[in-house]
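User: Quick sanity check before I run a bigger batch. Here is a single chain. Can you write out its predicted 3D structure?
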Amino acid sequence: MPSSVTRSAARVSAAMLGLVLAATLAGCSAESAEPAATPTGSAAPTSVATAPAGETATPEPSATPVGTPVTIGCDALLTPQALYDYNPNFGTDPSYSPAKDSLAAQIIDYKGVACGWVNQTSSEPIEIAVADLPEEELTRVKNDAFAISNMVPTYGDEAYFRVTDGVGEARVFSGTHWVVVMSPAFYEPGDAVPIVEPVLAALAG
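Assistant: Done. Predicted structure follows.
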């Protein structure tokens, strides 16, 4: 089984390779064929990781979860205006609580916050959870994300996306924050952008 150090090195190498490829593509001649248009607000990667049936989406937590308390409220983390701009049918889910052994439940153990919203028409939920972690633990959860998801350049300092049992899951790292955004409404990384961007802005203050 690869060590944490090995996975960290692989994760950094993957990020550097992505930057090199992006720079190479940006320098391509104008003689190349005109690329197909990309839908507004969408930044899909080449492929989207889909978890095999039965595979858990939750990385194994450390023996004693640590973290700095996240005190921001749900309405400040994702403002009513930001939610309305995304889809006016969404509202706060008064019955929301993180599922046992879920990523959101793990983030609560890290002294983080977890919030839920629901589409009043389709009943599709949106779940957001945020933890503020020390460097060692942040590296561990980044390695977990790298091992089971696709790295994407869509948001944050480092981000991953995959679809598990029909639910799109974005794991985003920004500074010391680990942000998880999940919804069956997310089919690709770009679908989560209107939610992830205001959340990161709120955390940045």
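The longest strand covers residues 125-132.

User: Great, the batch can go ahead then.
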